[in-house]
Design brief:
single chain; two-stranded antiparallel sheet; globular
Length: 244
């Protein structure tokens, strides 16, 4: 289960200007008779995720992309010995797993995810042994890989499915509210999207989760089996991504 879905404020943005206006008294923490002062740091790491002060996720994306390209260079050295099937499994283990780890935190950040999309393209070329000038979309379709933005949507919809079927942790269920519960109209399976004054607020799970879920066809909302839901969800997102 994703630990790192952000519940963000809907009215403010953590820019460097706003952070500079925070008084020092609000940054310290008093424990008994001792006062704990914060340590100034550009970013911190929590369970493998780099968090910067503005929550732009640029540091995290940069480190993930760097790590993936390093692994790709290592795999390229043994590509001739492995063949397509083995290479695809190695790429899934060493590259795709990194791209998908906590990717729900990158919801509604299309420009930020461009380095990760380049990683995906490089991985597809490695698996299929394609050259740099060859068009990449047919390769992604052949491997049945979703683009990065759709992989993020997939993760959000899967979490919302667990919420919808009462198999998600309570703290996630408390983040969203069904339309039926809010308007007393039974039979509806969509969720309320809270009003956000900024794009920053829309990155929170309370907005991004319902937005992704509500965009799905009604027949996907009715599936209770998680395995079947995953297969049908990927088929739907694959159709959207490649217009097929």
């Amino acid at each position: 289960m994703e630990f790192s879905i952000i519940s963000m404020p809907t009215t403010s943005r953590r820019t460097s200007t706003h952070l500079g206006k925070v008084p020092e008294s609000e940054l310290s923490l008093t424990v008994g008779s001792a006062t704990v002062q914060p340590v100034v740091s550009v970013s911190v790491r929590d369970l493998g995720v780099q968090l910067d002060a503005e929550l732009s996720m640029k540091d995290h994306v940069s480190k993930v992309a760097s790590s993936c390209f390093y692994q790709l260079r290592r795999l390229r050295q043994i590509r001739r010995l492995d063949g397509l099937e083995v290479t695809a499994k190695l790429v899934s283990a060493f590259i795709l797993s990194r791209l998908d780890y906590c990717n729900s935190m990158l919801a509604r950040l299309p420009r930020c995810t461009e380095p990760l999309q380049r990683v995906l393209h490089a991985a597809a070329r490695l698996v299929l042994n394609h050259r740099l000038h060859e068009h990449i979309t047919p390769a992604l379709q052949q491997l049945h890989w979703l683009p990065i933005d759709y992989r993020i949507t997939y993760k959000l919809c899967l979490i919302m499915h667990l919420v919808h079927t009462s198999r998600a942790p309570q703290y996630l269920s408390d983040c969203v509210q069904t339309v039926a519960r809010s308007s007393r109209r039974p039979g509806l399976r969509s969720y309320v999207k809270p009003r956000c004054r900024t794009k920053f607020g829309e990155r929170g799970f309370c907005y991004a989760g319902p937005a992704a879920w509500n965009s799905l066809p009604h027949h996907l909302h009715q599936i209770n089996d998680t395995g079947l839901f995953k297969r049908r969800l990927k088929t739907e997102l694959f159709r959207r991504a490649y217009h097929c």
